[in-house]
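Risk register update: the risk that structure generation would not scale has been downgraded. Supporting records follow, first protein first.
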Amino acid sequence: MPTERDRIFTQAGTRPGSFQFDDAVARVFPDMIRRSVPGYTTIIPMIGVITSRFAQPDTNLYDLGCSLGASTLAMRHGAQHASCRVIAVDNSSAMIERCQHHIALDDNAVQVQLRCEDLLDSTIENASVVTLNFTLQFVPPDQRSSLLRRIHEGMVDGGALILSEKISFEDDDEQSWQSLLHHDFKRANGYSDLEISQKRSALEQVLVPETLTAHRQRLLDAGFTRVVLWYQCFNFVSLVALANRQKNDPAPSA
């Protein structure tokens, strides 16, 4: 399926909280996320690298909020065991339809199962790797802790959760500077000030960012034993949370 350039927010009048992962967004999603999320093109292949370290034979690998399947394919190719199974979940039928197309074009022995469902209703079991790639920020804040607990409970020892998020900052000055730099990034990628403002309005109350401290504490409270920040660019980060200390968790330096 061909993709288009993102022109969704070129017209004034966007309502606050009106953003949806509908067919219009699905058609332009690769362009939208590349031009909006700094480091996205680095994060995706690194999900494959992290998967290669933590994926265990005969286990499930979950991509929760898979959208068009970029993380799904990275996990599929990162898995070193053909006995693994990737389970990709998204509640947008438009996203799942296009994801299915990309999966069908990919030649790999690792099985992929697509599920069009709310990830809050998904069963997580026998998982060695779970990815939430810019997904948790769209989950209502009061449901995030229970979701992470369910994920942890469904993971095998030595498993890993990859969590990528847009974050907020505790210091007001840092928040202002990081937001300005993010807007500069989008301008450099061809978005107008109107488009930036319109998209920000559409995402209000839909995408709710939190601080890095809040994410770390919630992961630890959910039962993960270690949380590692492996990537940050402006106000976008990616973490790895370990389900238990195993051989894949490096020993402290002497």
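Supporting record for the second protein:
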Amino acid sequence: MSSNNAAVVEIAQTAGKFSSSIVLQTDNKYIDVKSILGLFTTLVSHKDYELHVHGSDAEEAKVTMQEVFAKHGLQIVVVTD
């Protein structure tokens, strides 16, 4: 398993712990972060990603997701509306 696979699995599992909607945007694509398949086809390092989080536990989800992405060396910008 490559490190990217490990990142995808951990990101999806972590996102799954939250009730909030967690969506990753890159270019013109929107990917549900809870979808392992969606992440596999999208997640490559050295790209710019925006993370959109909406829901009752959004604040906690934003912090936790930033930590998981950073742990795997992926750059994201959390979008606050």
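The chain has one domain: 3-79. On this basis the risk owner (M.S.) recommends closing the item.
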